[in-house]
Amino acid sequence: MKRPTTLSTKIALLCALTAIISCNQPQKASNPKNEDPIIVEAPTQLIAIPEAQSMYNSYSKRRVPLIQHYEDSINTIHKDDKEFDVSRFVYYDYKTIKQYLAFIEQEAEDADVEISTLRFYFSNYPDEVVFENTKDSIKHPRQNSIMLSPTYNDGKRDYLFYVAQGAKGKQAIPLTNDFEDIKGYSTRMQERNKVYATIAPSFNSTAAAPLNLQESQSLTLNRGSGVPPPKNQ
Q1: Residue 221 zone, left/alpha/beta (φ > 0; ψ -120 to 50; rest)
Q2: pLDDT tens across 69-106, in order?
Q3: Which residues lie below 8 Å from residue 120, measured CB to CB, with a gap of 6+?
Q4: In this structure, how many other beta carbons lie within 10 angstroms of the beta carbon of residue 171?
Q5: Residue 83 phi/psi, 5° resolution?
Q6: Does residue 224 contact residue 184 with C-beta atoms inside 8 Å?
Q7: What are the b/e assignments for 140-151, b being 16+ CB within 10 Å?
């Protein structure tokens, strides 16, 4: 005759079986939706909508007529009766801006510098079909535009810069505020499109020989879409 199983033994076996089954089941990943969202504070540089409208209207009154008159006078000289369209804004798709910010941060880190500011330059396309010494087309001759360009700080001031590949990796090459080579850095183009630059200023002929830098990379963004406001909006 079989010995009856006690109640305590049955409970112990049930607990062991439950533990084995639960261990073999995959753990459910935590649901990020249940986590508290990160709250981003509004920048102090934001302005109210009425202020934005006031600034837009001020440009309409103080700048658009001047540009309109100047550009229309050029059209008259060329016997072109078409009214010049004054651009009012430039836009980029949001993904392009995010890609650009990620790219310049990547290049700055590789060049061992930290981006200090991001400048928005006012600019104007030349009255040409292509840019000088390049084959890059100009889609909106004479139209105003903007250029975005990062800077790094050397402890004294901010510099525009681009990066170039050197013997020790990528290096930041500084520029003046108007995108010219810094005096004393001896940046120049040589045969086979090699870029040569001294990292420290060379104020005399006894300075160290320039480093061989290749594959220069601009960090300045343009090529957005600039348009006048729709006439019916």
Answers
A1: beta
A2: 999 999 898 888 888 989 999 999 999 999 999 999 99
A3: 146, 147, 148
A4: 20
A5: -75, 135
A6: no
A7: eebbbbbbbbbb
The shares of helix, strand and coil residues in the chain, as percent rounded to the nearest 5, are 30, 25, 45
Rounded Cα–Cα distance for residues 225 and 88 (Å): 11
CB-count burial class (<10 Å; 0-12, 13-18, 19+) for 138: middle
Shortest CA distance to 172 belongs to which of 157, 153, 188? 153
Contacts of 148 (CB under 8 A, 6+ apart): 100, 118, 119, 120, 121, 220, 221, 222
CB 164 within 8 A of CB 193: no
For helices 49-62 and 64-77, angle between their N-to-C axes, nearest 10 degrees: 30
Distances in Å between the Cα of 106 and the Cα atoms of 64, 82, 112, 170 are: 38, 45, 10, 11
Name the β-bridge partners of 89: 227
Which of 143, 139, 134, 177 is CA-nearest to residue 157? Answer: 177
The whole-number pLDDT of residue 18 equals: 60
Q: Closest by alpha carbon to 183, among 203, 207, 164, 167?
A: 203
pTM: 0.71
Contacts of 202 (CB under 8 A, 6+ apart): 184, 185, 186, 208, 210
CA neighbor of 86 nearest in space, from 60, 122, 47: 60
Is 107 in contact with 217 (CB distance < 8 Å)? yes
